[in-house]
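Retro notes (design track)

What went well: tokenization of the new backbones is finally stable.
What didn't: we kept losing track of which sequence belonged to which structure.
Fix going forward: every design gets posted as structure first, then sequence, in one message. First example under the new rule, 146 residues:
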């Protein structure tokens, strides 16, 4: 049984090639609404179009596979402000990020607990479904422009 603070074997440890890592499990996530409040004026804005983005989420420890959220989202147009905007997803991930808050939080915690990144493939981020050396990819997600 897995639990907080207990280390489990990393099924991807020792795989030298990124292409040899387990394929991600794809999980559909729906946030495509007909209307949503405008972030500027709170007026209910109608959907203009729909889109999809992929967010890398925490891996499944039971299977050793990373998890990718396929997020269906809506884009809206506010007739009062004459502005387009996407539905709010900031509870899932920072704007423009490739990773969810959960991945970023775990990666930051692991690095702060274990110290500076080690040489791949023994890097602790690898255990959490990050496809490459980990923290650099998380940093990309954190610091990407929206
Ligand atoms: Zn508005």
């Amino acid at each position: 049984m897995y639990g907080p603070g207990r280390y489990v074997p990393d099924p991807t440890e020792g795989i030298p090639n990124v292409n040899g890592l387990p394929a991600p499990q794809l999980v559909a996530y729906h946030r495509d609404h007909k209307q949503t409040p405008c972030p500027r004026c709170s007026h209910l804005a109608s959907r203009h179009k729909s889109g999809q983005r992929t967010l890398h989420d925490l891996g499944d420890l039971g299977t050793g596979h990373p998890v990718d959220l396929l997020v269906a989202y809506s884009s809206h147009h506010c007739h009062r402000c004459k502005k387009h905007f996407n539905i709010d997803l900031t509870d899932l991930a920072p704007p423009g990020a490739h990773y969810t808050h959960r991945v970023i939080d775990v990666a930051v915690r692991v690095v702060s607990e274990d110290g500076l990144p080690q040489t791949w493939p023994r890097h602790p981020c690898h255990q959490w479904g990050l496809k490459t050396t980990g923290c650099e990819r998380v940093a990309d997600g954190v610091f990407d422009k929206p």
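Added context from the reviewer: The chain is about 15% helix and 30% strand.
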